[in-house]
Automatic annotation (TrEMBL):
Record-stated family: Belongs to the polysaccharide lyase 8 family.
Domain of life, per lineage: Bacteria
Active site location: H279, Y288, R342
A Pfam family of this chain: Lyase_8
Domain Polysaccharide lyase 8 N-terminal alpha-helical: 66-376
GO annotation terms (biological process): carbohydrate metabolic process
Name the UniProt record assigns to this protein: Polysaccharide lyase beta-sandwich domain-containing protein
Length: 852
């Protein structure tokens, strides 16, 4: 098993990471910039880069790589044709320049794609421009033309998105400078320095034309992009200081974020529990996290053998990200939606997203050693074995990675194995996410809080995001093609207020473009511009206003809780802090808990309603199916009579079955108002959720089980269980009451699972709370399990992250500690055992103890 981040973080504080960058090589080797041993390092860096993106002669001869090289060649030919047909104000046909920064980025991308084809191995590139210096000079001429007319004058540039100018263009240009280094030296030797000077000038969110680690723009994946570009620029210019500074800056991304000791005020990055945050408060492993992993691994490949990093710690840190950050979020080859921010509205599937992670793992395995390398390779084989979509390695960036992937799959000595157990509960409390996995299913839960954003909208993406962090869940069933159950078609066809798990007001909401006629709220006088902090805070990714979101984990079991609240925009508007024309939406009320066991997920909701008097829908679950799929809805009423179909009824249990897909989910109704079952056929365009999506109509059968509350209805509570892969016999067995609800109020929610001998609770308010054998003072999450060997295991956490201690009492026979985490004190009290957990600066993590 690779070294866990949890083990690694203690050995790699930020200071140690900074020390991983070597001093200037010139000082170490006695050489000068561009000469001697240092010049050899620059040459090696460029050669590594060319090999990473274009391949090598050995790799080019591999049959597995032919499709990739042919694709590169075909793309380059089409770009050259578009270049031949360009009109006035265009470098490529149909890409007009002058006012559109996306078109300018696209023009640089097309040039890069041509340059890339000229550096692929000639023997492996049929009918392509490989090795064609004439084509390379056309690319260079294109670079000159773009610089002279649309890029070189910084007083005219920097319109549109900041990312275009500080990262997007520079990424394409920096790679082209490396790919074409020899021809540039022979044909236009001054061009590299000219472009680097311009790229420096466009770092307007930087400092002194360089990275600014105190800038909110130069963090996480964005910082990795910028510094990788600067490493390449330094190699091309022979600028050792630039490379060394860029490597040192990038290494700061590897340091685990300590929310109580922030470096440069940065909250973006990986946390000790495997969480990843970008944009200060967005759970983002599945998008920016992928980008960061890819960029760091590319840096490892580029710097290999150059001496710019001291040892293998980059590999070990990235490996830890894979183990603790990515692997729990990938179920049978599908990367979960709960960590994709606005990227959830893109048509790329969870399988395609995983392919990027697979390439990074393949590359990491080549730099790891021993058992670590075997585990990484085994994970690659496992993902290939369990995925319901065949991974197309031609989608990899590097031809070298394609060949290495083929070698891993062909090696029968490598055991296909996940990087974690099949039964696990993962509390990503630092980003308000929970993943609960069993061999037959995975349950993914998205929450929000005063620390974490409710959603992310930006740039016309994720247009209707309002409830995605309000306890929305995805229940993935094993053996299924998840594109038929979730992904873009789920988001397209499921109304936003009926996302699975959500309590929402029944009202019409308008998207940002509908409200303001632009992709953002434009009011510079009040601080609202396209990338201002006010825009981020109130429009793009607003946080909730309540601190309670998190839970406790005890081995493979867990409990999570969440207090639904209005977001910061609504709160600010009520206090007069936002302009009159700024539109805000009020949330509904609910306090919720999830108790995550083996065969079921028990959900308690209390205080469900709306203080403003609106109708409210609580969606217990929503599932989509193809129009041709055969669905059956069967159940039993509380009086024992059978039931089927749709409607509102006092159900004891319900079973949804998709016979076509051999998939089923059961619902056991433990308490609350009668549920409503619906089955509709919905058609909607994918463009409804993202402006740049194709206007492709999607038709799905839409199943939902909800609890409907009319306007002005009193607040209510409900308790139910989700039972993945349920049979009717299994659902009928719940009549024997293996589950007991001990409390379900806005103060306390607690459940007992008799079969597992587990008692679990969430306490939400000050005061003493009692549930079964457990007493807890103040807010907290507690999970207690009585084991067959006579011991008792307990887990405690502070989901508010604001308490110094959480005191718990277990009533009954006095016990003593057999084992306990640091920070757990166990003592005796009359009638039981008192446990005091020091939760200060624990950021929601669980503390455990075993008692006898």
């Amino acid at each position: 098993m690779p070294l866990s981040r949890r083990a690694l973080v203690s050995t790699l504080p930020a200071a140690a990471l900074a020390a991983m960058a070597l001093p200037l090589r010139a000082a170490a080797t006695g050489g000068t910039a561009g000469g001697g041993a240092t010049g050899a390092a620059h040459t090696r860096l460029i050669e590594n880069t060319v090999a990473a993106f274009a391949g090598t002669p050995d790799v080019g001869a591999r049959p597995e790589v032919r499709a990739k090289l042919a694709s590169i060649a075909t793309t380059a030919r089409s770009r050259l044709t578009a270049m031949d047909r360009a009109g006035q104000g265009e470098l490529f046909q149909g890409i007009p320049l002058g006012t559109s920064d996306p078109n300018l980025v696209t023009s640089y991308q097309y040039l890069y794609e041509i340059a890339l084809a000229t550096r692929t191995p000639e023997g492996g590139t049929p009918s392509g421009p490989a090795g064609d210096t004439g084509v390379q000079r056309r690319v260079i001429d294109g670079l000159i033309w773009l610089h002279e007319h649309y890029y070189g004058d910084q007083s005219k540039g920097y319109y549109g998105n900041w990312f275009t100018w500080e990262i997007g263009i520079s990424t394409h240009v920096s790679k082209m400078l490396a790919l074409l280094a020899d021809e540039l030296a022979a044909y236009r030797p001054e061009l590299a320095a000219t472009y680097v000077a311009s790229m420096d000038a466009y770092l307007r969110n930087g400092k002194d034309r360089d990275v600014d680690l105190d800038s909110r723009f130069h963090t996480g994946a964005n910082l990795a992009d910028i510094t990788t570009n600067r490493v390449l620029q330094g190699a091309v210019l022979g600028d050792d200081a630039r490379i060394t500074k860029a490597v040192a800056d990038q290494l700061t991304v590897l340091a685990t974020i300590d929310p109580y000791d922030l470096r440069h005020g940065v909250t973006d990055g990986f946390y000790a529990d495997g969480s990843f945050i970008q944009h200060a408060s967005v759970a983002y492993t599945g998008s920016y996290g992928r980008g960061l992993l890819t960029r760091v691994v590319q840096t490892i490949k580029m710097l290999d053998g150059t001496g710019y990093t001291a040892d293998d710690r980059l590999v070990r840190v990235a490996q830890g990200w894979v183990v603790d950050g990515f692997a729990p979020l990938i179920f049978e080859g599908w990367l979960m939606e709960i960590v994709k921010g606005r990227g959830v509205s893109r048509p790329a599937t969870g399988y395609a997203d995983t392919a990027e992670v697979v390439e990074a793992v393949v590359d990491l395995s080549a730099h790891a050693t021993g058992a670590d390398a075997t585990a990484l390779k085994g994970y690659v084989a496992y993902l290939r074995q369990t995925s319901k979509a065949t991974l197309d390695p031609s989608a990899f960036v590097s031809p070298v990675s394609i060949a290495a992937y083929a070698d891993i799959l062909a090696d029968s000595s490598i055991p296909a194995r996940d990087l974690g157990p099949a039964e696990r509960h993962v509390a990503f409390n630092a980003m308000d996410r929970t993943v609960h996995r069993r061999p037959g299913y995975a349950f993914a839960l998205a929450r929000s809080s005063s620390r974490i954003s409710r959603y992310e909208y930006m740039s016309g993406e994720n247009l209707m995001p309002w409830f995605q962090g309000d306890g929305a869940h995805h229940l993935y069933l094993s053996g299924q093609d998840q594109t038929q159950a979730f992904g873009i078609d789920y988001l397209t066809t499921v109304p936003p207020h009926r996302l699975a798990g959500v309590t929402a007001p029944v009202e019409t909401r308008r998207t940002v473009p509908e409200l303001y006629g632009t992709l953002w709220y434009d009011n510079p006088e009040r601080g609202f511009t396209s990338s201002s902090e006010a825009q981020n805070t109130y429009v793009y990714f607003p946080r909730s206003t309540h601190p309670f979101s998190g839970g406790a984990a005890l081995g493979p079991y867990g409990v999570a809780g969440f207090v639904q609240s209005d977001d910061v925009a609504y709160a600010a508007k009520q206090s007069g802090g936002l302009p009159d024309d700024f539109v805000v939406y009020r949330d509904a009320d609910a306090t919720k808990s999830w108790f995550l066991f083996d065969d079921e997920i028990v959900v308690l909701a209390a205080g469900v309603g709306d203080t403003a008097g609106r109708a409210v829908t609580t969606t217990l679950d929503t599932r989509i199916a193809a129009p041709s799929d055969t669905l059956a809805l069967t159940g039993r009423l509380r009086g024992g009579a059978p039931w089927s179909g749709t409607g509102t009824a006092p159900l004891e249990w319900l079973r949804y079955a998709n016979a076509t897909r051999a998939a089923s989910v059961g619902y056991v109704f433990l308490d609350g108002p009668p549920p409503t079952v619906t089955l509709d056929t919905v058609t909607r365009s994918r463009r409804a959720v993202r402006l740049s999506n194709p206007d492709l109509p999607v038709t799905k059968q839409l199943f939902a089980v909800t609890v409907e509350r009319s306007a002005d209805a009193p607040h209510t509570s409900m308790a139910y269980a989700l039972v993945p892969n349920a049979t009717e016999h299994q659902l009928g067995a719940y009549a024997r009451r293996p589950l007991t609800v001990l409390a379900n109020t806005t103060r306390l929610q607690a459940v007992v699972h008799r079969g597992l001998r587990i008692t679990a609770l969430n306490a939400f308010t000050p005061g003493t709370h009692r549930a079964g054998r457990l007493w807890v003072r103040g807010p907290g999450s507690v999970l207690l399990r009585e084991r067959q060997d006579g011991t008792v295991a307990i887990a405690v956490s502070d989901p508010t992250t604001e308490r110094d201690t959480v005191p718990v009492v277990i009533r009954g026979r006095r016990t003593r500690a057999v084992a306990a985490d640091d920070g757990v004190r166990v003592g005796r009290v009359p009638g039981g055992t008192r446990i005091v957990v020091t939760t200060r600066h624990a950021y929601g993590r669980s503390f455990t103890a075993t008692l006898r």
